[in-house]
TrEMBL record:
Pfam families given in the database record: P-II
Keywords tagged on the record: Phosphoprotein
Protein species of origin: Gramella jeungdoensis
Protein name per its UniProtKB record: P-II family nitrogen regulator
Keyword Phosphoprotein belongs to the record: yes
Cited InterPro entries: N-reg_PII, N-reg_PII-like_a/b, N-reg_PII/ATP_PRibTrfase_C, N-reg_PII_CS
Family: Belongs to the P(II) protein family.
Any one GO CC term of the record: cytosol
GO MF annotation list: ATP binding; enzyme regulator activity
One BP annotation, GO: regulation of nitrogen utilization
Coiled-coil segments: none
Positions of post-translational O-UMP-tyrosine modification: 50
Length: 112
């Protein structure tokens, strides 16, 4: 099993969520987060200057079986993409075990 952590633009969240549901990744957690990015310059929008050093993003935590890893990453890459600085990051780590409390299932079965 793998844990995928993705930091994406808030504006792309609905698109990413719907695409994940299409490939049957139906359970994940998410948080609104603020981070510091690589872009150091500010922007002007409608005459108002604002800083882009602190970025509002959405953090997704997704645990999938090994067989779902590649397609989940592909969905994130394709649907969170805008081509502009600040599209986000994806991190993948190993999960040793998972349990479903209600049924006491463990391993990949607990993810279904």
């Amino acid at each position: 099993m793998k844990k995928i952590e993705a930091i994406i633009r808030k504006s792309k969240f609905v698109e990413v969520k719907e695409a994940l549901h299409e490939i049957e990744v139906n359970f994940f957690s998410y948080w609104d987060v603020t981070g510091v990015g690589n872009e150091k310059e500010g922007h002007v929008y409608r005459g108002v200057s604002y800083s882009t050093s602190e970025l509002q993003r959405r953090f997704l935590s997704i645990v999938v079986s090994d067989s779902f890893l590649d397609r989940t990453i592909e969905v994130l890459l394709n649907n969170a993409y805008t081509g502009a600085v600040g599209d986000g990051k994806i991190f993948v780590s190993n999960i040793e075990e998972a349990y479903r409390i209600r049924t006491k299932e463990k391993g990949s079965e607990s993810l279904k």
